[in-house]
């Protein structure tokens, strides 16, 4: 995974820009970095990255950035951890290994110093800190990875998707040659089952449209007013794309939905215009995925066992180093 080092006007590293540049570079190369076009029959269950030391899952943008690394995909091992976490357990990150950057993002409410005297006015200030983690394949002494559970048969995974669709309560209609969610009528429209190349194609398409349906005012309340080609439309589609990856990785179904080239270009445009958009999109996508998975009793129970970057820090400061000592 190619990384970039951008700097702010005062010479500090611009982590927002670095992340955005990495994602944009992948899109410009013709690859959506959140796609998971694996063979479902060979998938060993959840592909969500986890912390090797704690066993807890990464969330939001960290699921995206760690998923962009080829290390986990090639090895089938989803485990990562910081240098200090490895050392504390007697493991050793090999000298010269390059770590992956993960992010801890949190909006903070602080007092606005520019407010008139006597007025207690709060403003939102974004806090972004970075940490470096290493993949299990870069660490000597780490225990052998054992798949927690035997992979479900593909048909069972399709049934999981069907269960979620039914439990969501969103009306599903069949017919025509298009897949879409209609905010006006609050229903999902899918082509006939026979129109899909495989049952898993039906499942991932249905869940993608459920991502859009989650934005209705009586659900997660996102802006669904954008028309095709608008910035609002592109932002919503980006969120549905990334949430599809989160859900598909958890359930064990592929997440590669063909998109017109104009979609890719629109995502590039909005990301270049706002370097914080990818963090917001990933955070919203995580909320969407949590909402969708809450309709399945098994995955709903698993959700509390998830983390951001905080569990990877070695002390109170960001870990900016890129190479193992």
UniProtKB/TrEMBL annotation:
Domain Polyvalent protein metallopeptidase: 160-283
Residue ranges annotated for the N-terminal domain, each copy included: 14-134
A matching Pfam family: ArdcN
GO molecular function ontology, one term from the record: single-stranded DNA binding
Lineage of producing organism: Bacteria, Pseudomonadati, Pseudomonadota, Alphaproteobacteria, Hyphomicrobiales
Membrane-spanning intervals of the chain: none
Protein name as catalogued: Antirestriction protein ArdC
Signal peptide: none
Organism field: Methylocapsa palsarum
């Amino acid at each position: 995974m190619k990384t970039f080092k951008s700097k702010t006007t005062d010479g500090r590293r611009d982590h927002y820009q670095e992340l955005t540049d990495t994602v944009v570079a992948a899109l410009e190369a013709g690859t959506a970095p959140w796609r998971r076009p694996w063979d479902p029959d060979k998938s060993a269950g959840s592909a969500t990255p986890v912390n090797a030391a704690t066993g807890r899952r990464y969330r939001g943008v960290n699921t995206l950035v760690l998923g962009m690394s080829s290390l986990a995909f090639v090895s089938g091992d989803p485990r990562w951890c910081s240098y200090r976490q490895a050392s504390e357990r007697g493991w050793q990150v090999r000298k010269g290994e390059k770590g992956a950057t993960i992010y801890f993002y949190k909006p903070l409410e602080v007092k606005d110093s520019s407010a008139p005297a006597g007025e207690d006015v709060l403003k939102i200030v974004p806090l972004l800190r970075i940490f470096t983690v290493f993949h299990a394949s870069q660490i000597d002494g780490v225990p052998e990875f054992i798949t927690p559970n035997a992979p479900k048969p593909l048909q069972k995974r399709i049934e999981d998707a069907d269960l979620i669709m039914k439990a969501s309560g969103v009306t599903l209609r069949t017919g025509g040659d298009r897949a879409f969610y209609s905010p006006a009528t609050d229903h999902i429209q899918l082509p006939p089952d026979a129109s899909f190349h495989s049952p898993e194609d039906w499942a991932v398409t249905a869940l993608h449209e459920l991502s859009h349906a989650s934005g209705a005012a009586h659900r997660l309340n996102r802006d669904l007013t954008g028309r095709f080609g608008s910035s609002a439309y592109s932002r919503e589609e980006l969120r549905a794309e990334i949430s599809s990856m989160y859900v598909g990785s958890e359930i064990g179904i592929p997440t590669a939905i063909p998109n017109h080239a104009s979609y890719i270009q629109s995502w590039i445009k909005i990301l270049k215009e706002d370097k914080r958009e990818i963090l917001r999109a990933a955070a919203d996508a995580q909320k969407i995925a949590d909402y969708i998975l809450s309709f399945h009793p098994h995955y709903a129970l698993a959700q509390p066992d998830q983390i951001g970057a905080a569990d990877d820090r070695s002390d109170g400061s960001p870990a900016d180093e890129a190479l193992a000592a």
